[in-house]
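agent> Task received from the user: take the single chain below, predict its 3D structure, and emit structure tokens. No templates, no multimer pairing.
agent> Plan: (1) validate residues, (2) run structure prediction, (3) serialize to tokens, (4) report one or two observations.
agent> Step 1 OK, no nonstandard residues flagged.
tool_call: predict_structure(input=
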Amino acid sequence: MTAQDRLDGAALLIMRLGLAWFIFVWAANKIVVPTQYQNLARNFDGVEVSLFQVYAIAGVQILLCALAAVGLMRLFSYGGLLIMHFFTVTRRWEGFFDPFALNEAGTFPVNRNQVIDLAILAAMIALVLMIRRDHFSIGGWFHRHLREFKWWM
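)
tool_result: status=success, residues=153
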């Protein structure tokens, strides 16, 4: 492994851990305050979800975060995080067109989370596109050492 490979791997390790943590916090919050997500589903999507459904969704999301954090089943886990976040971004388009809007008191930027969402989405796309350079992951190790296990990539 060259010095450039090690730098690329280190950069992607940092990106992967940060993105997995970002989604994990949101997923874990579904377990801590499930009624908040029931209200979001009702108000944003017009659907009723049970507590069991909220916990099940959180469990799947946490599993994907764990897989992504260690770099296992990379295309599935990184792609899963990307799709989950893309879904969130598509539901919040209005804030992208007015990133400097303030609250009614004129003291707080109400759309800044949407702007942050775009940066996270860009990083997730980059992680998926650079999957072959993600050397410091279990999937990367499998790819380098056990070529017959290509499905782990």
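agent> Step 4: summary for the user.
Residues 3-152 form one domain.
agent> Done.
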